[in-house]
């Protein structure tokens, strides 16, 4: 008939002792078919209790908190940067405005200097004209004050002019005669 699948302990055909066969979980039958292990059968060893990897969980939690902190810091830094840019733009606008005001004041001062120079030149010409006129009058008075010719017997004609007659009396200018209240 058929040969048993489980050899019994006893002498082997080659003379070595045989051990009883341990179930491997897959027993083969004739024809090479295997039987799957019985899921209801009790396992040989109880399963080890599963441990959670608390170290990895802690590392991941710390990394998540660090990423959140860096993100908050980046948003704060961006807000500060935007604020600084706004302040810089406002300061630049004020500097441009001040620069244009300085340019306008410089132009006004240059125009005033040019006008003062023109007025000074006109005053210089006027003073030179007045000085020339004064020289002409002085020469005319000098000519009138010369002693008469020797043949003339007039005592008034032989008189020499005094120093007070030769120097004109100074008169006050409008600026000197003005009162402090402007009248």
Automatic annotation (TrEMBL):
Transmembrane segments: 54-75
Biased amino acid composition, Low complexity: 86-100, 154-183
Location of the region described as Disordered in the Swiss-Prot/TrEMBL record: 1-51, 84-103, 138-183
Domain of life: Bacteria
Start-end of Polar residues biased regions: 11-22
Compositional bias ranges of the Pro residues kind: 1-10, 36-46
Keywords linked to the UniProt accession: Membrane, Transmembrane, Transmembrane helix
Name of this protein: Uncharacterized protein
């Amino acid at each position: 008939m058929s040969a048993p699948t489980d050899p019994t302990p006893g002498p082997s055909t080659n003379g070595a002792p045989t051990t009883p066969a341990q179930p491997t979980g897959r027993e083969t039958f004739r024809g090479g078919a295997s039987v799957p292990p019985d899921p209801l059968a009790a396992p040989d060893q109880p399963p080890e209790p599963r441990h959670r990897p608390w170290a990895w969980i802690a590392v991941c939690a710390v990394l998540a908190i660090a990423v959140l902190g860096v993100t908050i810091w980046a948003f704060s830094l961006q807000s500060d940067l935007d604020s600084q840019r706004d302040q810089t733009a406002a300061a630049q606008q004020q500097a441009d405005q001040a620069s244009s005001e300085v340019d306008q004041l410089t132009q006004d001062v240059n125009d005033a200097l040019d006008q003062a120079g023109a007025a000074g030149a006109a005053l210089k010409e006027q003073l030179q004209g007045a000085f020339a006129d004064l020289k002409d009058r002085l020469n005319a008075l000098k000519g009138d004050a010369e002693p008469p010719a020797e043949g003339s017997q007039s005592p008034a004609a032989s008189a020499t002019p005094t120093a007070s007659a030769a120097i004109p009396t100074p008169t006050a200018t409008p600026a000197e005669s003005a009162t402090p209240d402007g009248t």
